[in-house]
Amino acid sequence: MPAPIVAVSPDYRTPPSVITAIIGISAVASLFLAWLVYYHPPVDVAGTHLAFLPALDAVLNALCAFFLVLGFRYIRRRQITAHRNSMFGAFIVSSVFLVAYIVNHILHGDMLFPRAYPIARFIYLWILLTPHILLAVVCLPMILITFFLSLTGRFPAHRRLARWTYPIWLYVSVSGVIVYAMLASYR
Fold first, then answer.
1. Which pLDDT value is given to residue 12?
2. Signal peptide span per the entry (predicted)?
3. Domain boundaries, the chain
4. Closest listed residue to residue 40, CA positions, set 137, 113, 133, 106
């Protein structure tokens, strides 16, 4: 049985220390991921161990996008409990994605797009990958703060931030699937 949905007084402010902590944790996580992707030498250079992880990441991104769209649909219909469950589904799937992504990069390192396809590589790098990475970095603290606001009953603030978080999170999830599909099709 889900916890009852209770709003706090509109006068109750979100503690700045919580927001600062969420942003700090997100910054450390982003720096760790940047180090992992760009500087950490892969453990399994041959790519034989857990070779299914990139495909799993794409499936998890697609599932996240599905839950996000479902959650948006539910909130538009004022089905609060179904919305909440869908958003928890998106959060859980994204969390599992992050673990699989980290393990994949520890083992295999970063997958580079082949230079033999310059037009496709340009599309991959500048249209998909660059905004995907930048928005993923921005999205992490937004997701955590949006969840914090909801879980603590600060629904007006939750709604205001969710209007920005939702499209960015959805873009990152969908573009993650496209990035995988492009890498897989040109390898």
1. 66
2. none
3. 50-185
4. 106
